[in-house]
Amino acid sequence: MFDRREPPSFVVDASVACAAKSDSPSSTAVRCADVLQVIFECGHYAVFSKTLSDEWLDHQSGFSAAWYAAMLQNGRVLFSKRQLPQLRERLIEVSPDRLQEIDEDFHLLEAALDYGRTVLSRDVRSHKLFSISARTVEDIRDILWQDPDTEQNLTDWIEGNAPFEHSRSLYHKGCELMGNAPQ
Q1: Is 118 helix (H, G, I), strand (E, B) or coil?
Q2: Domains of the chain as residue ranges with CATH
Q3: Is residue 23 predicted with pLDDT exceeding 90?
Q4: Buried b (16+ CB within 10 A) or exposed e, 49-71
């Protein structure tokens, strides 16, 4: 487990950037926009890698583009250059038939392990894959992976400095998926 002493930082997947629209009738769009707004208003940080920045440029909404610009202007964007090839190889050993899926979102894990250990993503497939892998691969067990569209009380949790909660971890979700949730 890790201890947050600094303002929290969040790896925000492009799936959230694409969905976030404050003026949309879609509840998903509004929830994603609300999460980004709370991160900004609370003075938290956003974490980007080169890959994630490129994805954002390709998929961001007008709202998320303005949010990113404001975060940059306020010095609240952290850039991760961390590369963890051995961790990638361990994940491939656990799920050799899922190489493409691992490679699509592995950069989110690298950035989360570099800063903050929290991923905000709407990608259910990657969440499930990495959660199941976390049962075997200890390095990713304490990563908190949250979907702004489905997680209950997410904005309240972020406003409260996003403390570590085991129930939000990849490991806990992996145990739940396999039918043996830890206490």
Answers
A1: strand
A2: 9-177 (3.40.50.1010)
A3: no
A4: bebbeebbeeebbebbeebbeeb
